[in-house]
Amino acid sequence: MSYSAAMPADVDEIAARHLLRSDRQEDLCFALWHPSRGETRTTALVADLILPEPGDRQVHANASFNPRYFERAIGEAITAGAGLALLHSHPLGRGWQDMSEDDVAAEEGRAAAALAATGMPLVGMTLAGTDRTWSARHWERVAPNTYGRVDFESVRVVGKHLRVSRSGISLSAPNPKLIRTISAWGPRVQEMLAELRIGVVGCGSFGSVVAEGVARMGVRRVVLIDFDTVETLNLDRLLHAREADAIRSRAKVEMTAAAIRESATHPRFEVLSREFSVVEQPGYQAALDCDVLFSCVDRPWARSVLNLIALAHLIPVIDGGLRMQPAKTGDGLGRGDLKALTAVPGRQCLECVGQFSPEYVAVERDGFLDDPKYIESLPVDHPLRARQNVFAFSLFGASLEIFQLLSLFVTPGGLADPGAQGYHFVPGLMDADWSSCKPTCLYAQLVGLGDNSRFNLTGRHLIAEAKREERRKSQRS
Fold first, then answer.
1. From the CB of residue 406, how many other CB atoms can be counted at a distance below 10 Å?
2. 2-166 and 176-476 share one fold
């Protein structure tokens, strides 16, 4: 199990204003954190600060806090069902920070009380004042009255711009395969981009292109999540798919993983395949291990789960969609519309922007979207009946999703948020929407709560189970 931390951008901003003093002295505060437990990684989501009141702490060469402040913070953590975190600053520090003896004593000395009161380990975080880099760790009980420090692998700050601090990052020798890529944004950005763990949910016409793109861009770790099988009707738009894959009933994740291993440019490339839907618990937990998720799905249930992950678990979700309509007069294309957006705290979520409707989540969970009679009962122009797709549109849609990642992380020209982008093939125009979530949005109330959101959208996915069983039978025969 590995560990990381994350916080919304607004919490980071408040913490920085408090911790980075104008007199350049160290300062501190407590915070509450909620767990986000994935398949191989647990993330501490820091969502609420407990700022000091007068008399709660002393500010000097090394800031210190009084017992009543610690007791108040413990009380708030118990009430919220959260863990406790201690945040402090190194005003002149740069990059991932080590700990002084005083830092160790302050955290290690309170680890037992925090664990006993909350049932979760004490998390410690340090903010470097020179470049706003966070570092993090927690304290595990390793023996009676003995607590050991476990350093986290990363800290991400999630908002309109994604910032990731990572332990042990150093510039490596230039990769000759990436000379042109590095020339676009420089070696430091490339090194950080390469270390993002990218999840691709759905390996169909969009997802297969996205997976190829991030592998060629030098990303080191890619997670593929899809339950479906390569079929003959996929061959006109599924990148890398061959007729032999359809004959063999090959899993889409297996085919895509094999292909991007060949095209990946990172020398230590890793790809993990999960033959599940993201609405199933194994697929959901694999998604929680990622730093960024690409939503390449076309069903409402999966989008609702990804929407929860984006806000409650602070993992940016980049979503895309395509809708085409034949011409009403007969031959020809009437319209083709593409959309790409990023769901994070501070931007519109997938429900508020209209990427899925809650009522159809329930309809899908009950199995009606796989019932031909139900689909035939819908109006001819209903979105759930639309199945048209063309590879050229998939290429463009996948590119828009990758551009959303680059805006979010690379921030070209200082622009991190291009809005929810829509391209209309007829009349050939692009638009963007920077609206916020609706005041009644349920998901916006779950920001940073992780597993403590108590909002479980996963369940049995009968079609996914049937697809896996069909592949097993096909492989046996």
1. 17
2. no
- Distance from the first to the final alpha carbon of the chain: 38
Burial of 206 from C-beta contacts in 10 A (0-12 / 13-18 / 19+): buried
Alpha-carbon span 446 to 413, nearest angstrom: 32
What tokens were used for 373?
């009679």
| 429-433 sheet: strands from edge to edge | 270-274, 221-225, 197-201, 292-295, 317-326, 333-343, 420-424, 429-433
User: Rg of the Cα trace of the chain?
Assistant: 24
Q: Which residues contact 395 (CB under 8 A, 6 or more apart)?
A: 209
Q: Would you say 226 and 201 are in contact if contact means Cβ atoms under 8 Å apart?
A: yes
Cα gap 209→298, rounded to integer Å:
15
Structural domain boundaries of the chain? 2-166, 176-476
**pTM to 2 decimals?**
0.96
Confidence of residue 382 (pLDDT cuts 50, 70, 90): confident
In the numeric block, the tokens 């999630």 are attached to 158
Q: For residues 236-269, b (16+ Cβ closer than 10 Å) or e, as one string?
A: ebbbbbeeebbebbbbbbbbbbebbeeebbbeeb
Give the integer Cα–Cα distance in Å for 62 and 42.
30
Average pLDDT over residues 336-365: 94
b/e 15-38 (16+ beta carbons within 10 angstroms → b): beebbbeeeeebbbbbbbbbbbeb
pLDDT tens digits for range 76-119: 999 999 999 999 999 999 999 999 999 999 999 999 999 999 99
As separate numbers, helices (DSSP H) first and strands (DSSP E) second, the chain gives 14, 19
Q: Domain 176-476 is of which CATH architecture? A: 3-Layer(aba) Sandwich (3.40)
Q: Using 50, 70 and 90 to split pLDDT, how confident is the model at 476?
A: confident
Report the pLDDT value the prediction gives residue 303, as an integer from 0 to 100.
98
Whether 51 has a pLDDT exceeding 80, the answer reads yes
* Separation between Cα atoms, residue 258 and residue 240, nearest integer Å: 9
State how far Cα 373 lies from the chain centre.
Answer: 36
Top CATH class, 2-166: alpha beta
For 9, phi then psi, to 5°, come to: -60, -35
CA angle at 36 for the pair 110 and 147, rounded to the nearest 5°: 25
62 within 8 A of 102, measured Cβ to Cβ: yes
Cβ–Cβ under 8 Å, residues 223 and 274: yes
Q: Would you call 13 helix, strand, or coil by DSSP?
A: helix
Say if residues 464 and 284 touch (Cβ distance below 8 Å): no
Residue 477 DSSP symbol: -
Mean pLDDT of 426-431: 93
